[in-house]
What we know:
about 170 residues, alpha+beta, about 40% helix, elongated
Amino acid sequence: MNPPSVLLYRSGRDLLLRAMEIVTLLPVAITVWLLSLMSPEQALADLGSPAGIWAFRIGLTLGSGILFYSFFFLHGRYVLSVELQGDDVRIRFWTVLGSRLRTWPVSAWGGRSLYHKGELILPGRPVVQAPWIDIRTPEGKKLMIDDQGEYPQGVEALLTVLTPGDDD
Length: 168
């Protein structure tokens, strides 16, 4: 029988991230679809050479997906939830194709945390505040914990489990 789980953190933004991923993927899909409608003869007449056609298609596809590609930065780094189950830490990550769950023993953790204010200040614009906590897995991979998420046991409980040697 498994020991009961204690929820230490939940971001609450998984559906929002999924919706934003779909919205940012739409321009790429529409661009690829529109490029498929262009006849080879018309493309050759407009762009002059097969190399020009490929350069145009690749450039347009990459340009239309610039927002979508930023999601690859969050892939496997953005923490959706952290649970303590007995002597194990279970972390669910956001990925481009869904979510992934990893489990580590509590004793494997011992890194440091770094708090980022996440402020974006542009003249004449509202200030954007998206603070996050930067934590490393036992293997050294950087994780992002959205500080605007929920800490049912308090942020100190989460940091005590994931960064027991961090005195900052």
